[in-house]
Amino acid sequence: MLQVQNLSKRFGGSTAVEDLSFTVNAGEIVGLLGPNGAGKTTSIRCIASLLQPTSGRILLNGHDVAENPVAAKRALAFVPEVPNPYEMLTVMEHLRFVAAAYRMEDELKNAEEILTRLDLWEKRNELGASLSKGMRQKLACACAFIHQAQVFLFDEPLIGLDPKGMRELKSMIMERRSQGNAILISTHMLDTAERLCDRVVILNRGRLIAEGTVEELHQKLSSGADVTLEDMFLQLTEEVPA
Ligand SMILES: Nc1ncnc2c1ncn2[C@@H]1O[C@H](COP(=O)(O)OP(=O)(O)OP(=O)(O)O)[C@@H](O)[C@H]1O
């Protein structure tokens, strides 16, 4: 569903992502982990076509993003790290706008349920400019869930959400997994990643340093079952020479 093949991204003389390859299959949640500056957001922005890769290939639902951008983007829903709603559109108008852009007006029948679950139904007539940080995050998630994407990209989706919002968003993400969607989530919340993700991809200094299920990481590091993903993450990211 999502294939990242030999992705590299350089900014001037510095390399943010180097020869990164991984796959997110249908019905799978993959966590994209790494310390600050590891290249998570750069990778996600390349997948979402907001940055042009220096080299490499990205396929969304079988469509090459560079060769067939419209079909590729049609398969994708993206929630950025810092959502920027349109100041002069209401919450409901954002959903109408997304549904119209993707020619999926029928999907608006789900708007009340999605907005209610994210505690935004009461705010449906309020302007983007008036929303709090957490509400903006929830609106970006609502816009992602309104259309029938096959691949979901979330960049730090839980930051700024209240506990109920976090729980609801995790449930909505798991529902999408059970519907066969491919989901990539960048996060620093390793306890959440351990519970939510089927596999993790760990980056450090732009390179993939480990990939697999938590059990596979245990085998790689010969660690006991009492060792957490956080312990393994710290061991792996501190091992890498400068
Ligand atoms: N527009 C840019 N111009 C130059 N360098 C950039 C740009 N965007 C990112 N970088 C650099 O690329 C590297 C990777 O940054 P990126 O934002 O992808 O990391 P990250 O893993 O998402 O970090 P964080 O956890 O702090 O959000 C960093 O060294 C960063 O300074």
UniProtKB/TrEMBL annotation:
Lineage: superkingdom: Bacteria
Q: Is ATP-binding included in the keywords of this UniProt record?
A: yes
Q: Name one GO molecular function term.
A: ATP binding
Pfam families registered for this protein in UniProt: ABC_tran
Q: Where is the ABC transporter domain?
A: 2-230
PROSITE patterns referenced in this protein's UniProt entry, alphabetically = ABC_TRANSPORTER_2 (PS50893)
Record protein name field = ABC transporter, ATP-binding protein
Which SMART domains does the record match to this protein? AAA
Originating species: Fimbriimonas ginsengisoli Gsoil 348
> What keywords are annotated for this sequence in UniProt?
ATP-binding, Nucleotide-binding, Transport
CDD domains membership = ABC_DR_subfamily_A (cd03230)
